[in-house]
Amino acid sequence: MNARFAIGKVAGALITLGFVLVFNFFLFRVVQTDPVATLFRGRNIPQERLDQLRAEFGLDKPLGGQFVDYLQQTAQLNLGLSYQSRQPVWNEIKSKIPATVALVGTSAVLSAVIGTALGVAAAWRRGTKTDYSITTSTMLFYSMPDFWLGMLLLVGGAIITGIFPVGGIIDAGSSRAGIGRLLDQAHHIALPALTLTLAYLGEYAIVARSSLLETMKEDYLVVARAKGLRDIKVRNRHALPNALLPVVTLSAINFGFVLSGAIAVETVFSWSGLGKATSDAIRGPDLPMLQGLFLLFSAAVILFNLIADLVYGRLDPRVRT
Amino acid sequence: MTVVVGDRKRQRWVEVAREFWQARSGRIGVIILAFFVILAIAAPLVAGTDYINPVKARAAGLPQWGTPAEVGPLGTDHFRRSVWDQFVYGSRISLLVGLAASFLTILIGSAVGIVSGFVGGKLDSALMRITEWFLVIPFLPLAIVLAAVLGRSLLNMIFVIGITSWPSTARLVRSQVLTLKQRTFVDRSRSLGGSGLHVVRQHILPNVSGLILANTTLAVPISILTETTLSFLGLGNPQTASWGKTLEEAFVNGAIARNAWWYYLPAGVGIVLVVLAFTLIGQTLEQIVDPRLKDRR
């Protein structure tokens, strides 16, 4: 790959990350002028001790100095203490990453595969009943608030029928291990993963469909047909490789949202991942937690955007200039 | 001379309207939307505000979690409030926030897009840097963080949605302006001594207005869904109940576990229908103003 293209993209990503850090620092300084007072509100602590704490937090320094401190601490993953648990924010966040990656990762893969397949099917049979029903149903799911869809599935799949658990990651008090534990987790992940898959699917279907329709107008497909190739071969060998490029970008970008994509849905299913942590932090309000989560979400998206750009540069030589 | 130009412009809009009505999706969208707009305007005629107040609802002897069969349209909630009244008045808030936020989105987006595309140079690259930054940053977490910091009010909600969702409009308008700038009528106007402002007002704006209109319509669904999600997460104004807020209260107070469908269904259905209506209208408009999209459907 062109080295200058890659270096340019990496530099761009670093600058964006820098903007996030500056934004994060100043936004929270606007509201939270004195974290010490907030953290120890309502406790009887002598003034000298408070001053001492402020000095420990570096709050007696000018804003510029505080910003440098903030950068150093962030680089060391020291994101402050959570107001709610009084534990380091990074420890809190770290422990919740796996649950979210499992849930949103599963649904991201499922929705990309199923959504693309639906979009391709719709485009190839454009104007038929298949096309019409696929377009209509994906649009319907696209119009729903994802958490409301989750509430409906929760009522249908857990409250009324009792097939699935109403929430959580594993059964409370369960001591199963190995296969039993895995099955238990699968049982719990089913409804939230279905919700997210249905919610994301529409976007893939729409993008895949319109991209394939665009490609189908190209002359080389007429040539392929004129050569006497079978329909399925024209589609799979000639049309799809080009038509699916936007889908590749979309999935890379959506994978960046894997960490932040399920805030409301995790809340509905009490899935204790980063999304649930976000909504708990809002209700606190637990500003250090929110700040840390926002930083992590942004970093993930920036990273995956970079990957998308680089992969795209590999797949499509036209953008490398 | 000016009369002729005015006539031609009006004729163009009449044509757009006719073409719009001929498309089935456009018609369906307008009908659904008209229903909810009438509902929102006629709210005092079809619902009351008394039973949205828990104290008055209690004094009137309404039960908690009353089913529609027991207490009339759409039952009551955990505070004995009438769900129907909340639904009707909630439509006002949801539509208002959706429209106002989209308006703000388009205002910022078009301004940035036109200035960036028309002026070009350093200003263009600076504005595009900012735009790109907003595009990369995850939209919902950014909105959450802003809303949490600014506090819970209707105006803040509108501001937060507007400030986080303008970049895609800016990019679209900018690219349109860049193509227009290459056209001969812009060169002609400039060589005849037309100032930059004159060219923008007379030649650029009329040519991007269709695109901007379609984009506004497509921004409304995003605004409404964002408002719904933010309200669901507890960032909505506690005093005014939008549909999103209703869903939050239904969820937090256990309407799901009791399967109080009359509480959690109406607001959700309302959101889906309004979002669908705006999407249908926007897509139809987009196809009419952007001929390249015509044979994609």
Number of strands of chain B: 0
How many angstroms separate the termini of chain B?
A: 39 Å
Number of domains of chain B: 1
Largest interface: A-B, 49 and 37 residues
The secondary structure category of chain B is mainly alpha
Q: What fraction of residues of chain B sit in β-strands?
A: under 5%
Structural class of chain A: mainly alpha
CATH architecture of chain B: Orthogonal Bundle
Mean model confidence by pLDDT of chain B: 83
CATH class of chain B: Mainly Alpha
Parts with pLDDT < 50 across at least 5 consecutive residues of chain A: none
**CATH domain class of the largest domain in chain A:** Mainly Alpha
Give a quick precis of the structure.
Chain A has 321 residues and is mostly helical.
Question: Can you describe what's shown?
Answer:
The complex is a heterodimer of chains A (321) and B (297). Chain A has 321 residues and is an all-alpha fold. In chain A, 74% of the residues lie in helices and 0% in strands. Chain A folds into two domains: 3-75; 95-320, MetI-like fold, CATH 1.10.3720. Helix content of chain B is 77%, strand content 0%. At the A-B interface, helix 1, helix 6, helix 7, helix 8 and helix 12 of A face helix 7, helix 8, helix 12, helix 13 and helix 14 of B.
